[in-house]
Q: What sequence folds into this?
């Protein structure tokens, strides 16, 4: 019987798990990988993408190219039913729900960034998690330099030329090092900016930077960055942030229009909804990487808490959430699934880190490899050689190498191309007979009719009763999102040619929660139309 092996997530853990499963099972298993994107992001290179050292497209590789023999499904994961052994995803233009059966499930969905604990940080901080984040940061930095070069207002110039990175771990240090190099190498194009006017700051809550490295190397890293003009504020947290300032836990106000957050890792909402046992927000697994209480569910990478010894309790007793560990975890996980299918005993995951490396920008780095400490240019060169060898796919290796070679000989470009972004509120046109959405589709927008007429059909699953009505200009549909529903309750189609204004889920929810009259309207509408009791969130803002 052909085994159905399903992998959720296309990061390091998911990619390498799928590849190892393919190697071990070959044609004897149907292997699928579900990812929201059809490419793999080599995350260690994101700071270099943000700094313009390499092109953004050269930090990614097609998953289809890397996963020969594995079926890739570009879709959004909605839920998992462990009893029926199916995963429901939303796919296609209409975001229709599709069920995918599995015999063994691998959860490798990584982590997301949650900055909600600090007032203003979620709204005003740039992140460094995705390719779009890196592209956005580069465009933002260049835009600040452009603004500072032409403004006549001293306070605006000071804010534009102050760059703050929150977090001084690997990601924070590498990001701030590359940011500083981009700024330094770009200033020759901006005659009205003096280097002394630029302020680059790292804010770290811990007593030292780079906790993952020996203290001597962390001290070296700080010293090198300080020589280049970077300020490192240790034992310092963030109290609040706005679009024009950051307030530290010590009360210092830093005027800035650039805040980059490299902190706040949190589990994916889908993982939280899986009803799996969690440990510190990650999937609790046995040493074999089986999810606790689930024999055919496995997890690895950032979203899994993998013990490295029996009765693990301390932080050092668990696998580090890094690419180095994820790749090795994938090998052992695939071997254990093969053993489980064959009815053989499983083996615990064992791996000892070979070391750690960090780039500081400006051809400087720090490294500890097999207990040997390196710093400066040799460590930076080793960092590049290591990650070049680590990149999946020969084409990716070649492109990145050529990028690095050109970057060493040519000046950095200050061209900042901004990717077009779909606005939260946008118009959509429909022809008569076109479906708008169907019952069960993913719920992701609120619709207000501008022109034409639309038919709304609601069916009660409990009673089988169907209600149909028309909506014309000024009317609306899709409002049940306010109840937190993630799938459509009814079906809507255009009766005539028409036009609607679509408002995204987050924006619609925020608007009803802050605009009192609108919130009251929907409270009454949901009660009278659906017999649902919904209360608009209370806002501190009062309507004058």
A:
């Amino acid at each position: 019987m052909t085994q159905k092996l399903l992998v959720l997530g296309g990061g390091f853990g998911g990619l390498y798990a799928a590849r190892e499963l393919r190697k071990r099972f070959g044609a004897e298993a149907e292997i699928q990988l579900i990812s929201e994107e059809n490419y793999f992001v080599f995350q260690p290179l994101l700071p270099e993408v943000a700094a313009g050292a390499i092109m953004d497209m050269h930090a990614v590789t097609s998953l289809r190219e890397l996963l020969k023999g594995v079926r890739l499904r570009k879709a959004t994961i909605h839920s998992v039913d462990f009893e029926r052994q199916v995963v429901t995803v939303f796919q296609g233009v209409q975001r229709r729900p599709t069920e995918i059966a599995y015999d063994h499930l691998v959860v490798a969905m990584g982590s997301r960034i949650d900055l909600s604990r600090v007032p203003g940080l979620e709204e005003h901080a740039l992140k460094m998690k995705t390719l779009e984040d890196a592209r956005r940061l580069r465009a933002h930095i260049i835009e600040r330099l452009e603004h500072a070069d032409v403004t006549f207002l001293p306070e605006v110039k000071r804010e534009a030329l102050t760059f703050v990175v929150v977090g001084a771990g690997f990601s924070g240090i590498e990001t701030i090092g590359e940011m500083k190099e981009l700024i330094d190498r770009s200033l020759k194009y901006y005659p009205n900016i003096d280097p002394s006017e630029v302020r680059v700051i790292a804010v770290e809550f811990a007593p030292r930077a780079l906790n993952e490295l020996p203290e001597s190397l962390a001290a070296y890293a700080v010293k090198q960055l300080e020589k280049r003009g970077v300020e490192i504020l240790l034992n310092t947290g963030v109290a609040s942030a706005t679009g024009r300032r950051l307030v530290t836990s010590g009360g210092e106000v830093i005027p800035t229009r650039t805040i980059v957050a490299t902190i706040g890792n949190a589990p994916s909402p889908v993982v939280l909804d899986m009803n799996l046992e969690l440990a510190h927000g990650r999937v609790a697994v046995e040493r074999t990487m089986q999810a606790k209480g689930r024999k055919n569910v496995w997890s690895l990478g950032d979203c899994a808490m993998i013990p490295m010894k029996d009765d693990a309790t301390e932080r050092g007793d668990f696998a580090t959430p890094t690419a180095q560990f994820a790749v090795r975890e994938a090998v052992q996980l695939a071997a254990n699934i093969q053993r489980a299918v064959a009815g053989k005993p499983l083996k615990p995951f064992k791996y000892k880190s070979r070391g750690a490396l960090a780039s500081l920008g400006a051809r400087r780095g720090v490294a500890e490899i097999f207990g040997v400490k390196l710093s400066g240019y040799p460590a930076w060169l080793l960092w590049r050689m290591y990650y070049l060898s680590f990149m999946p796919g020969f084409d990716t290796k070649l492109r990145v190498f050529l990028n690095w070679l050109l970057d060493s000989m040519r000046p950095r470009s200050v061209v900042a191309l901004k990717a077009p972004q779909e606005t939260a509120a946008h118009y959509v046109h429909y022809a008569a007979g076109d479906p708008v959405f169907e019952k069960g589709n993913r719920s992701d927008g609120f619709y207000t009719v501008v022109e034409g007429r639309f038919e709304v059909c609601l069916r009660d699953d409990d009673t089988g009763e169907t209600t149909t009505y028309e909506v014309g200009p000024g009317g609306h549909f899709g409002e049940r999102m306010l109840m937190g529903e993630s799938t459509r309750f009814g079906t809507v189609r255009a009766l005539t040619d028409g036009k609607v204004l679509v408002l995204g889920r987050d924006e619609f929810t925020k608007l009803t929660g802050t605009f009192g009259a609108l919130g009251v309207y929907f409270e009454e509408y949901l009660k009278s139309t659906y017999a649902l009791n919904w209360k608009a969130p209370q806002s501190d803002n009062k309507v004058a």
